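Risk register update: the risk of archive-format incompatibility is retired. Evidence:
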Amino acid sequence: MRAANRAVNLVVVVAMHDAPAGRGWHSMWKDPVDRRSADRPAIIREEARVGSRSAGKEAHQAAQRERILAAAEKLLVTHGVEGSRLRDVAEAAGVSIGTVQHYFDTRDRLTAELFEWSSERRLSAWLAAAPEGTDPWTHLVALLNASLPEPLVWRSRVWIEFCAMARVDQLRRKLGRFYDAWRPPFRQAIEDGIATGVFHPTSPVEDIVDLFVILGDGASVAISLGAPGITAEHLQRVFLETARAVLGLDPALIDGGSVAVSDPAIPLGRLALG
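Archived output:
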């Protein structure tokens, strides 16, 4: 037993002797922890660099994906779905076909995501063009005018292509959700007008909402096909006259200044395709 104790004491003495000056036994055992603490700023800097590289890579990928979708939309207008190959999309986007396939492995996948991307952009632009906070008639007029998006022929042809593609069940469901998204803003504007005594509808509110959605959809078809006599001015007049009639709008109330109203005109400079 005495021999064992002497051996332990010898180990302790040797360890204490080998310890750096000014540091005892306990500081030796804490050394690894101390080194980690000392290295912590460097670790944080490295993590920040890794995070920055990751964020940069994600931003690059998002921009590349956006460029591919924008190129695919242009080809959709000029060549149609059947005439747009992945190779054509790659060339138009200025990337390799391998890059296109990295994001969209098949043309059907690209078409489905293009539908979602383009529809969401159109819906967001429509809502942004008619901000809330104005009187009900002004808000409704803005919604109707924004149903004719710029550039008019371009957007109309994109929409008609999507409608043609909706024979596929998946795209038909997407189209249905898009139609549903148009209804609440129209409904809210009409209900606000009824509540303030400006509107006196001649039909149920839901029927009027459907009518406005159908007007916007039908206008896109007519513009896309180049129907004779169909211009932005003509469509705007039809929209507003129809709205006045079905909402029972009192011209005296509007003209008398009880409601501050001006019928926003559609910018016509970009009617042509482009």
